[in-house]
Amino acid sequence: MTEWRYWLNEQRGTLIGLAIFLMMFAVYIANHPAGLTANVAQTAANKGVLLAFVAMAQALVVITAGIDLSVGMIFILTNCLASWIVVGSPLATTAGVVGVLAAGMLCGAINGLLVIYGRLQPIVATIATGAVYFGIALLLRPFPGGSVNEDLADAVTGRLFGVVPASLVLLAAVVLLVWIPFRRSVAGRAAYAAGSSEPAAFMSGMPLRRGKFAAYTVAGLFAGMGGLFLTFFTYTGEAAYASGGGYTLWSIAAVVLGGVSLYGGRGSAVGAIFGAFAARTTGDMLFVFDVDPLWQPLLQGVVLLIAVSIGAAGLLRVRNRLEWFR
Amino acid sequence: MDTSGNTAAMPLLRMEGVSKRYGGVRALENAHLTVGTGRIHAILGENGAGKSTLIKVIAGVVEPDEGRMLLGGRTISFRSPADAAAAGIACVFQELSLIPDLSVADNIVISNPPRRFGMIDRVAQRRIAEEALSRAGAADIHPRALVRDLPLSRRQMVEIAKALARQPRILILDEATSALTASDVEKVFAVLKRLKAEGLAILYISHRMHEIAELADECTVFRNGRNVESYVAGTRTDGEVVEMMIGREVSTVFPAKPEPSPDPPVPILECRDLGWGERLRDISFSVGAGEVVGLGGLDGQGQRDLLLALFGVLRGTSGTLLVDGTPVAIASPSAARVAGIGMALIPEDRKTEGLMLPMTVRENLSFATLDRLTKRGMIDRDAEQAAIEEMVRLLGIKTAGLDIPVGALSGGNQQKVVIAKWLMRKPRIVLLNDPTRGIDVGTKQEIYQLLRRLADAGAAILFYSTDYDELIGCCDRVLVLYDGRIVRELQGEGLTEHALIASALNVEQADQLEGA
């Protein structure tokens, strides 16, 4: 009888993230001229999945009580790389996909090594590596261009059975095959423990370094998946600095919306996905309300503030003020 | 393994000439210790005597500078807590080693979770956790509960269950009972006696003399990093042991209480029908000038909430609070400390709610009084220095300087800093939440005397303690709480350990509640 209440307590942040997304998406759909058609869902899913991958990457690092300011740049770098190597025969394309994902993991692993063995503050280390990753992206693609295997791209960004957005199925598969195993592994638990109380984890003999390294590396993998998907979505590669920075900042907003605590130890990448979709909807909302483009950044900020406030509304009910600081 | 018979006396762990220095400080010097299988060995000493360092060496947290350790006859050296755990050493630390955001079951199996197909097997994990909890006598704790949601006494039981789940050969308990309720302590003792019979070697560190008298086979006393003496339990009187520990004779533990006056004292703090949701109900009492009033009962019956409610931390409280007969509304701790009210709260957990550990002793001491130490918006350094020096002298705070991090002080001195920080404001109402938890005998006595001096100077003191001896020795009256209500008020001759325990358990009412 009480089992489900413990489950609810564990999942609270994720469920609040889901609720915020559903609320915002409902407003969006209600005001969309076409309503919820397969086409609208497909576009929303494709755009949402881009941020969702980057937000999942951010969530992993935030869970260890770190922050990764290079996720957007890994996303851009892998996009540029994919626009070179994910082409040609099925075999060549497969090799390209593997190469892109490996590059993402490598970027994440480098971040992890700097933070764990270099003992650098995550925020500074990833500002530096982010600049390096963007620099490599720029060398790969000084000008926008390149191409991608269009059959694969269309399959991944299209619809299954004419209704289900393929990108959502892909995202669900990643959650099942990468996130859940990580969450249930010893390394995953060590990553949570590191974020929750590193001294206690150390005293308990937990494999802290392995856990944090795994978190950073899998974060790189997720960011790389995002970059690959961006290539499928746009058919090109572009070293766009503003875009990389934007994705980094929005990924932080997304994890907070999705109930991941910036203090570490709490939340899940699934929550970050909902947060990403909610954050994405803030932009689309302005489109359906036909807002003057000049006003869009301002209003998007306001909508984001409202969304974050909904997530923080729980604090109003706190009856012991000490809990504000926990 | 050695099979030369006589297993009861077989030394399992030996330490020979172990030393450890931190900078210029000798935390442990030429320490010797022998612990046998099937024995409970108590370690006694003041805080700062080297006990914690000794334990950390055995548990692989710090590496000794000199000396050697033998386990079952073999020389060992640990590079990490994981090494020590692999050798069969499990520790229940004074500083809790639980991860707050993980569940109880996650925490219990944390060093070696059961795995299937490379992933943690959650069914097996649940089973191990349930077994360990019931072995520790804490089957009331749900394995899925998050540790952060549990009160301190339950966390400590989880910590013990966690150590047991490792199936250790050597079990170390460092002040493991300091936050436990009396009934939990009994359960833990029963478990320890069973483990001893099963052949475990147990190292038991405690400041509570009667616990050691009940449990230990052998005792070793530490002072200033050296082992002063090892003896068979029961061969020394309490007085002799305390003398060995602090190196000086102790007179009476508690200061004398004043004779109860025929007229009730002028109430400074008065509380009428205070309520807070389900946690506090119909709380009415008063504390007069010069009175030390205790809060008793089992842990988690609303004592902490009551203190927080008075101090303006809780929202949505009902009832009336009067200070000097005038109704007041205290909306926050900063409102509680204003001149007209003059309230101070010494919090439960000095590490999180009492001190800013990385900041200096000076900064920590003046935090609560900065509003009075400023001149034209700037902190008046001279006034600050004078106020701090007065406090360091008054409380006898031992520190290498005012500009070192407060975290570098011993536990007892840290607690003195917390108290001094509030005394600097000259409060008229002093609330204390279990202020002597995990601090040494000497400092405890100083705190008792300080409380009485404050009361004699006209302050009203409300004092929650989990230690019954303390309540009996220090307080003029004790209010016993059960399920958020004051169920009994004990004073004078009626204030005995028996009466405290009986009213804390409140047996009749418990039956009624279950029936309802």
TrEMBL record, chain A:
What InterPro entries does the record point to?
ABC_transp_permease (IPR001851)
Q: How does it sit in the membrane?
A: Multi-pass membrane protein
Q: Which Pfam families match?
A: BPD_transp_2
Give the chief site where it resides: membrane
Q: What does UniProt give as GO cellular component?
A: plasma membrane
What is this protein's record name?
A: ABC transporter permease
Compartment(s) where it occurs, according to its Swiss-Prot or TrEMBL record? Cell membrane
Which PANTHER family does its entry note?
ABC TRANSPORTER PERMEASE PROTEIN YPHD-RELATED-RELATED
Presence of the UniProt keyword Transmembrane in the record: yes
From TrEMBL, chain B:
Annotated membrane topology is: Peripheral membrane protein
Compartments reported by the entry: Cell membrane
A Gene Ontology cellular-component term: plasma membrane
UniProt cross-references to InterPro entries, sorted A to Z: AAA+_ATPase, ABC_carbohydrate_import_ATPase, ABC_transporter-like_ATP-bd, ABC_transporter-like_CS, P-loop_NTPase
Q: Does the keyword Nucleotide-binding apply?
A: yes
UniProt domain ABC transporter: residue ranges: 13-249, 248-508
- Provide the GO MF annotations for this entry: ATP binding; ATP hydrolysis activity
Q: Which UniProt keywords apply?
A: ATP-binding, Cell membrane, Membrane, Nucleotide-binding, Repeat, Sugar transport, Translocase, Transport
Q: Does this UniProt record's set of keywords contain Repeat?
A: yes
Q: Check the record and name the Pfam families matching this protein.
A: ABC_tran (PF00005)
Q: Which family does it belong to?
A: Belongs to the ABC transporter superfamily.
Record-given protein name: Sugar ABC transporter ATP-binding protein
Q: What is the lineage of its organism?
A: Bacteria, Pseudomonadati, Pseudomonadota, Alphaproteobacteria, Hyphomicrobiales
